[in-house]
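Structure in, sequence out. Go:
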């Protein structure tokens, strides 16, 4: 508690070190008997510096912001996540071409030698990924075929649930995506292991709070001031 208020929540936010805008990350119920809290930030770009902050909230009154030192991210492979799930593809990752879609229409007036080209505001990426799906237990030991099948089924169900997701990879891409087309499984030379592939369409900006909220990618409490 502080200044007569009983702390109810801890509001966790982040921003890139070179930016000023804070982005919501999590709301944690406050427990007076707990000193350590942990939050996994799944919506980060590789090789970037992030700053995190915590603010106590009591009766919708926000307290003083406590700010961390910059944290440099460092990871490889591909991760696909939402608010409650986080899947990793770390082996034999192949990135198919990334297409940057900027749409246009061409008009050919009868009284003009040259056409008129009109551009829309659309600017989004489409891309594909293929990788070997294998759990850490099988990667560093004997392949557990049953466990691999269950883990792969969980991933495929996630890819087919038609919900927005956040994609990040070791080469620095960070996008809100939806899966398009048909995710596939292909046999691997190792028994019990499969390669998986999927096509993705970029549908939003990870740094836009309203987009994260509307797609259900962060916890949101309408009566709490972000």
């Amino acid at each position: 508690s502080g200044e007569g208020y009983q702390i109810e929540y801890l509001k966790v936010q982040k921003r890139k070190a070179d930016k000023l805008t804070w982005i919501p990350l999590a709301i944690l119920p406050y427990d007076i008997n707990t000193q350590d809290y942990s939050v996994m930030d799944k919506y980060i770009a590789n090789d970037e510096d992030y700053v995190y902050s915590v603010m106590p909230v009591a009766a919708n009154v926000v307290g003083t912001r406590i700010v961390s030192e910059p944290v440099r991210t460092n990871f490889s492979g591909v991760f696909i996540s939402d608010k409650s799930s986080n899947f990793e593809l770390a082996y034999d990752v192949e990135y198919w071409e990334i297409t940057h879609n900027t749409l246009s229409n061409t008009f050919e007036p009868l009284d003009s030698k040259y056409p008129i080209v009109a551009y829309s505001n659309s600017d989004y990426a489409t891309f594909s990924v293929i990788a070997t799906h294998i759990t850490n237990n099988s990667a560093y030991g004997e392949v557990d075929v049953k466990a691999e099948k269950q883990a792969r089924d969980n991933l495929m169900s996630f890819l087919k649930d038609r919900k927005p997701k956040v994609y990040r990879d070791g080469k620095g891409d960070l996008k809100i995506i939806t899966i398009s087309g048909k995710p596939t499984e292909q046999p691997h030379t190792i028994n019990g292991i499969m390669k998986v592939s999927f096509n993705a369409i970029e549908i939003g900006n990870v740094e836009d709070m309203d987009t994260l909220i509307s797609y259900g990618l962060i916890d949101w409490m309408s009566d709490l001031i972000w």
